[in-house]
Amino acid sequence: MNVHLQPISFKKYSLLLIYLFFAMAIIAWSMEFYFEKLYGNLTRMGRFSERDFGWQLQRPEIPDELLKDYPIAEADILIIGDSFSESRVWQSKLIADGLKVSTTGWGNFGTWQPLKTAEAMPHDLGIVIRKAGFKGRYIIIESVEELFQKRMKSLAKESHPIIKHSYAIDKSFYSYPFTHRETISLNKLNGTDWSIKTLYNKIKLSLHLPEKYLKSGAVQVSIFDGCQVFSHRLCNYALFVDEDFKKETFNSIDNVLTINKNLQQVGIQSIWVVVPDKSTVYLGYGALNEYPYQNIWRTFTQYPELIAPDLGAEFIKESRIIKDFYMPNDTHLSTDGFLYLGDLMTRGLHNMQAGKQQPFFQ
Question: What does DSSP say about strands 219-223 and 237-241: parallel, antiparallel, or unpaired?
Fold first, then answer.
């Protein structure tokens, strides 16, 4: 028996497409709500769910008047830093202590793209800083561990006039100290592409696959017994940026000594603040690193002329006391971690002003 199928009408075909797209939109919106609003750079880069890796503890409030930046000519302390300093969170402790702090970024020295200028001379950082108007005594040179060597090699070669911008605190920036998390932002959705890849990663995590199958983009997932130190739902896993495991062996101490001496020649005492990589704090020194690991802080202790707090040892110890010391969904410290760093630096500066330089914050 022959069955003759009637061709679908254009109207029915159109309705079918509308229903299909509507269903897809509902699914996409459902994933937006389920995976929650993006906060961390690791969940963003690796396409992992904020619902699974977002912190769940409330963060402390910081008064807006403490998140400020003074002109370089008025500052007691100049900070050269990266994203661990640009949000001004740890500096709020110095501000609360009555100090005038000016923060500038590494990019303001032209260290990534060397410029040829008439006044640029090798190792002239101290002169450059004084010409920029800084009259204070202390400079804090801050860098995350993974980028410290690259910056030292670049900075010791040639310095350039500082371009000091007028910074304003951007409360939408991810390093800003959130006190609570939102589940969704209708103004800035995660996007369907991100949600689909996140769903794929969530399925892989649910299958309890080995770590080598869990890497996603620039983010490595580690199987980690972390429920005592992190608050996120999947605390049996931890997120780390893949670059943490590709650090070159540190061999730039001569550059550090050169810069330190150069600053001392113009009456500036430098304080070297190397912030440990998240992997160093939670997995251990040099864990999974491709190259032989050199403990930067231990190297510093061999040179008494260098003022360099051992943040490696201090952060490892404190991360087992303060939950979410680093954000589980990010490479950066949590607000609690930043404020702890600020307490250490305030205590250390008090010791230095009292004539006690070593150990820095004891």
Answer: antiparallel
- Nearest-angstrom CA–CA distance, 325 and 5: 66
pTM confidence score: 0.86
Q: What is the pLDDT of residues 21-69, one digit of tens each?
A: 655 556 665 666 667 788 889 999 999 999 899 999 988 889 989 988 8
User: Quick one: which H or E segment has residue 150?
Assistant: helix 145-157
> According to the model, what pLDDT value does residue 156 have?
56
- Write the pLDDT tens digit of every residue in 137-150: 999 999 999 999 98
Query: How many Å apart are CA 187 and CA 205, to the nearest integer?
Result: 29
DSSP 249: P
Residue with structure tokens 């199928």?
Answer: 5
Q: What are the strands, taking DSSP E only, across the chain?
A: 77-81, 101-105, 138-144, 219-223, 237-241, 269-275
Q: Please tell me the distance from the alpha carbon of residue 58 to that of residue 281, in angstroms, as a whole number.
A: 22
For residues 203 and 264, what is the distance between their CA atoms, to the nearest angstrom? Answer: 56
Distance CA 95, CA 102 (A): 10
Q: Which of 99, 173, 177, 171 is nearest to 139 (CA)?
A: 99
CA distances from 45 to 7, 38, 294, 331 (A): 47, 10, 28, 11
177 neighbors 338 (Cβ within 8 angstroms): yes
Helix (H) / strand (E) containing 126: helix 125-131
Interatomic CA distance for residues 46 and 237, integer angstroms: 14
Q: How many helices (H) and strands (E) does the chain have?
A: 12, 6
For residue range 60-105, list pLDDT tens digits in order: 889 989 988 898 999 999 999 999 998 899 999 999 999 999 998 8
Inter-helix orientation angle 335-353/311-319, to 10°: 140
